[in-house]
Design a protein that fits this description.
alpha/beta, 7-stranded parallel sheet, 5-stranded parallel sheet, 34% helix
Length: 326
């Protein structure tokens, strides 16, 4: 009986349709010993005898993949796959899949949670009220302010729709613009420099690539308004954290809301001790509905590949198809 590793900590101990799909297909389900995100050494140990991984954000490096030639598929429960060495996977005949269309609304809602928390000074008011200081103040409105969206894909579009409901002016930087959507939702496409200069709230929704790594750095932060806020619910690699910390200390920008970090789980950081920063633990894409939808879609991808089918809309390394064997 082939074994499937259910790696995401968010799926530990729950009962979902994804389990039924895998069991019905004849798989034995294996859950990690550690109920938290695994690091490389832990994953190396955990993958022994595993044929398919229903994956979270644990690192599927070349070292990991070479150590486990029996692994046939890494099915990410999500849409990001930067934790997977896709070239190594292709070289070794491993299919890598994602779950498109399952978590954009969860990320968009979480993005606005961070935006509202900072605009309304929520954390500091909560703490002040609980300590009997009664810190009433006038906070920032969203209506009439400019929301800049870097990356207008599925998630960026979901953020734009919510920004429209708040009466915000919508700007977007997108290499492959959808002009029909933009016209329908009153989004104006601009260059990256214009986006940086004009945004009151700048939200990142680009994939992590060689080109986008440290897109937000000392130079780009310097192009933003001193009253602007930065939000990252995409990938930690987009932001040079050292430059961001320096910019926040020097009041180059007003604040930041971060769900992702350059190193995850992160070590202690000055970001965690700033009153103008709100952080969450890479949780934006996982609410109860998206969790179940992502897990089911990933499970279905595993079953399809085991049956000799090819879920082309989910496979992110299509070059592996010519050599792929279950």
């Amino acid at each position: 009986m082939d074994k499937v590793l259910i790696a995401p900590a968010t799926l530990a101990g729950i009962d979902g349709e994804f389990l039924n799909v895998l069991k019905k297909a004849g798989f034995e389900l294996i859950f990690p010993k550690k109920k938290a995100q695994m690091v490389e050494d832990e994953l190396l140990s955990q993958l022994t005898g595993i044929r398919a991984a229903l994956a979270g954000s644990e690192p599927y490096t070349r070292k990991v993949l070479q150590a486990h030639p029996q692994l046939r598929v890494i099915a990410r429960a999500g849409v990001g796959f930067d934790a997977v060495d896709t070239q190594a996977a292709t070289d070794l005949g491993v299919a890598v899949t994602i779950t498109p269309g399952t978590n954009q609304d969860a990320v968009a809602e979480h993005t606005f949670t961070l935006i509202l928390a900072l605009a309304k000074n929520l954390v500091q008011q909560h703490l002040g009220t609980c300590s009997l200081q009664w810190p009433r103040q006038a906070n920032l409105p969203l209506r009439g302010r400019t929301l800049g969206i870097a990356g207008l894909g599925r998630i960026g579009k979901a953020v734009a729709v919510r920004g429209e409901c708040f009466g915000m002016k919508l700007l977007a930087y997108e290499p492959f613009p959808d002009h029909v959507f933009a016209k329908q939702h009153h989004v104006t496409f601009v260059s990256l420099d214009e986006l940086l200069a004009q945004s009151d709230f700048l939200s990142l929704h680009l994939p992590a690539t060689k080109e986008s790594r440290h897109l937000i750095n000392r130079q780009t932060l310097g192009k933003m308004k001193p009253t602007a806020y930065l939000f990252n619910t995409a990938r930690g690699a987009l932001v040079n954290e050292a430059d961001l910390i320096d910019a926040l200390n020097k009041k180059v920008i007003a604040g930041a809301g971060l769900d992702v970090f350059e190193e995850e789980p992160p070590l202690n950081s000055p970001l965690f001790h700033m009153s103008n920063v709100t952080v969450t633990p890479h949780a934006a894409g996982v609410d109860l509905q998206s969790r179940d939808d992502m897990a089911l879609s990933a499970a279905q991808a595993i079953v399809s590949l085991a049956k000799g089918e090819w879920p082309a809309e989910k496979v992110v390394n299509p070059d592996v198809k010519a050599k792929y064997r279950w």
